[in-house]
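Q: Given only this backbone (239 positions), what sequence would you predict?
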């Protein structure tokens, strides 16, 4: 799925099952020596994927350790993102010369628990999700909105070290093109100038899994900030 969602210069690797006997570096092993089996499996398989992506990118295999707030620490000049959910693990990696940041997120294609959407969505987003739920069945639009916001956070945090709340990003969804745009809104805190304030990405819903992916190019045209503005489609126009 990821290769279709990201530019070809982003190396990706995915798994839908956990291989037996995944190799971990000792410093990784020590992080999960007391973890429950589910955590061991997702941790190990996603790092197995990371090593494949490193190979595809032409960088030496290395441990992927968590930094501040869990952010994955990549080799110098490499940017990337990892995700895991039931039945899916994925990694996207790129050279810093090509992309300043990458953010990916996977979620089961199933509705959020009651009340969660209302706590993560802005009013326009709530309206759009309700519209799409009615018009385009087969996609858990509420969960997709959640996933996109997680992908935005994963692309934002490594650049800025700044936390975001779910209502700090306004997301516009395009159902037909399977794309999205997100814009960070000025909230309680000033947004760090170290990160972009707009994000464009692609999403997919296949085999029971939703995947959202963003790669922020190193060289963005000056007008990108305007053209990336979220498109909140008017009621009645389902795209
Ligand atoms: C960190 C967070 C995004 C992880 O997402 P998740 O859906 O719970 O889990 P996923 O399996 O998709 O991703 C886990 C991976 O994210 C990566 N990750 C963790 N913290 C991260 C951070 N601060 N920045 C970037 N990536 C991070 C790690 O690689 C982790 O894998 P690992 O634990 O095996 O190393 C989520 O737990 C979180 O804190 N969300 C709240 C912040 C947020 O999203 N706000 C919305 C802003 S609009």
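A: Predicted residues:
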């Amino acid at each position: 799925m990821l290769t279709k969602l990201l530019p070809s210069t982003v190396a990706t690797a995915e798994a839908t099952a956990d291989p037996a006997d995944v190799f971990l570096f000792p410093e990784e092993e020590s992080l999960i020596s007391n973890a429950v089996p589910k955590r061991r499996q997702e941790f190990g398989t996603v790092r197995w994927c990371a090593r494949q992506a490193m190979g595809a990118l032409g960088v030496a295999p290395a441990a992927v350790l968590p930094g501040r707030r869990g952010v994955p620490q990549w080799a110098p000049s490499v940017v990337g993102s990892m995700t895991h959910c039931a039945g899916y693990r994925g990694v996207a990696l790129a050279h810093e010369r090509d992309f300043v940041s990458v953010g990916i997120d996977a979620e089961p294609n199933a509705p959020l628990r009651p009340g969660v959407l209302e706590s993560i969505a802005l009013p326009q987003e709530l309206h759009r999700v309700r519209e799409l739920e009615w018009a385009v069945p087969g996609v858990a639009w509420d969960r997709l909105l959640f996933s996109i916001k997680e992908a935005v956070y994963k692309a934002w945090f490594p650049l800025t070290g700044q936390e975001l709340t779910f209502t700090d990003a306004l997301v516009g969804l395009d159902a037909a093109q399977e794309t999205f745009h997100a814009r960070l809104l000025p909230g309680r805190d000033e947004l760090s100038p170290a990160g972009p304030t707009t994000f464009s990405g692609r999403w997919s819903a296949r085999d029971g899994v939703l995947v959202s992916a963003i790669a922020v190019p190193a060289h963005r045209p000056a007008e990108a900030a305007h053209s990336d503005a979220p498109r909140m489609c008017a009621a009645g126009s389902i795209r």
